[in-house]
Amino acid sequence: MAVQERYDTRPFAPDTTAGMGVQLLVLEVLCRAVGMGTTGWLTGSAFAVVTWVVLTLALRRSWTGAFGPANRVTLARTILVGGVTALVADSFERRPPVAVLVALAAVALVLDAVDGQVARRTGTATALGARFDMEVDAFLILVLCVYVAVPLGAWVLAIGLMRYAFVAASWVLPWLRGALPHSMARKTVAALQGIVLVVAGAGILPRASAAAAVAVALALLAWSFGRDIGWLWRVRARPGGAGRGGTAARAPVAGEGRGVSVRS
């Protein structure tokens, strides 16, 4: 009976299922309001289904007992990211509604600061919540990179792919999964990526200026990752350090998460 209760996901079903339903509703609104085509709708629908499956499985494994208000804020951000993803996919076939795309992305970035505050004030900060928050941030950055890479060049994708490359490297080099200390510089650099990509995607800057801004953001991100990798390398052989399989907080892609910072 205890095992069945541990893996019973019914407490989360209303939240995760409602989230998928709202995502599909948002996609339908985008189709009718801004003329988003089939490619965008199918991409957004796939995003909704995959999100529902992954989140349900994660909740089943972690069993936090309740979805929580902070996770609901993050779920709302996920829905906005789904809309951005659909519009970016559709932009390869037709001129995208830039104002709508930028507005959705901007609100998603602003809400990134809200879910963490909600988690701390309600005492509902969890490792799952931090991971959920971080994965949403990472995917939004990657999607924005895809959008901005069209006018500026494929090199922009390095911003969105850097975190995933770090995760892949950590599968081979376990010391990369070690604990990192809190860093305001890391948090600032991570937050800057989304801001710069939204501004560049909005088309309000000349192309040369947008490219320069994104290049600076990429350079800062490379410095941030390089500094963290150097720190992990130096402490890898210390007792309790990265080389001993430390599993404490790790640096996020955008923001410090909800009391638990994770890069992977």
Instruction: Kindly provide the radius of gyration, computed on alpha-carbon positions and rounded to a whole number of angstroms.
Output: 19 Å
Strand content: under 5%
Question: Largest sheet at a glance?
Answer: none
Helix content: over 70%
Shape verdict: globular
Mean pLDDT: 84
The helix/strand order is: HHHHHHHHH
Question: Please, how many helices?
Answer: 9
Domain tally: 2
**Terminal residue distance:** 33 Å
Residue stretches low in confidence (pLDDT < 50, at least 5 long) are: 1-10, 242-264
Number of distinct beta strands: 0
Decide which structural class fits the backbone.
Answer: mainly alpha
Organism: Streptomyces lydicus
Transmembrane segments: 41-59, 95-114, 134-150, 210-226
InterPro entries: CDP-OH_P_trans (IPR000462), CDP-OH_PTrfase_TM_dom (IPR043130), CDP_ALCOHOL_P_TRANSF_CS (IPR048254)
Keywords: Membrane, Transferase, Transmembrane, Transmembrane helix
How would you describe this protein?
The structure is a single chain. With 264 residues, the chain is an all-alpha fold. The protein folds into two domains: 1-125, no CATH class; 141-264. It is 72% helix and 0% strand. It contains nine helices and no strands. Helix 6 (127-152) crosses helix 8 and helix 7 (157-172) runs parallel beside helix 9 (207-235). The protein is globular, with a radius of gyration of 19 Å.
